[in-house]
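Protocol check, entry for the methods section draft. Step 1: assemble the input record (protein sequence plus ligand SMILES). Step 2: submit for complex structure prediction. Step 3: store the structure tokens unaltered in the notebook. Ligand used here: pyridoxal-5'-phosphate. Step 1 record:
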Amino acid sequence: MLTRPPAEIGMPLEAVDTPALLLDLEAFERNLRHLADAIADQPVRLRPHAKTHKCPMIARRQMALGAVGVCCQKVSEAEAMVYGGVSNILVSNEVVGAPKLHRLAALAQQAQMYVCADQAQNVADLNDVALAYNVQLAVLVEVNVGANRCGVEPGNPALGLAQQIDTAPGLRFAGLQAYHGGAQHIRDFQQRREAIATAVESVHHTRNILQQHGLECELVTGAGTGTYPFEAASHVYNELQAGSYVFMDADYAKNLAADSTPWHEFEHSLFIYATVMSRPNNEWAVVDAGLKALSVDSGLPLVYGAAGVEYSRASDEHGKLVFHDASHPLRVGDKIRLIPGHCDPTVNLYDWYVGIRNQRVEALWPITARGALL
Ligand SMILES: Cc1ncc(COP(=O)(O)O)c(C=O)c1O
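Step 3, stored output:
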């Protein structure tokens, strides 16, 4: 159930109720175009990750600029995308357990669905449900390329699973999922590049072994915002899964560019709009955005456009700001923007994007996959 939006179309930004999730539409549109242009000459397609924005209206804008579809992490996220008009989805994850498998197969009756597997029993279960629903599921083998999360080891373990998928009557072997999550936030550019070079080598090796056994990979997919140029130029990956590039959170802003300067390839477009609710003294103030309004797993938010103010502590409904200068003019009732530390879990706390342009509300987009955990 969606809650009441904190704004109305056309109202000035200052009138938006808080806490609210603001989307600077101009910065957001520039981010979308930048990635589309950056890979236009590369032999890769973009299949951005919808786990970041959880919003079909954003997915459709990405597809209008050339994305082939989206990735989802959860079946229920994929349902929200299909209901919102997206018809080509990779669940870049393992789907385990009867309820989810049934929902996945039901989705495959309406949309092109791809899913990952890293275990023989799961492949057998995917096959059973595909046959029961009279669909053919496209299955990728997930390979561990250094993230040490899900995935079989590259080489022969991947081959064994791919062969099982290939001979299962309800399944179609569709390629390799090789996402290196651990590399995305390596701050140093060279180290980031090296981590992906190692991943590319093992994916290349695995793809060759599969080819020698007559198995072609339709998709070789991975990459996030932090490493996409490397996978794009690899001639091994043919799809990219970047998600956070649409918003660019404070944590990603700590990555460094090739010349070791701060990495400014994408712009901050996502903000938490908050109101100062208390200024008990000269040293600090309190805003109405705490742990229930922003995620702090990747660090505290940054205060946007306000020098000398730091967000220093979050409790459930309160955020404490400290001032470097006791005469800072921020008063009760003033509103500020915060750049979230981590965009994905922050988005998951809201029902609406409040899209702003020229200091006015232009759009209200429902975050229909919010809370889609199943
Ligand atoms: C499987 C997978 N692909 C792609 C991404 C997108 O990465 P990013 O948001 O860093 O661009 C993630 C993020 O965690 C992921 O888990």
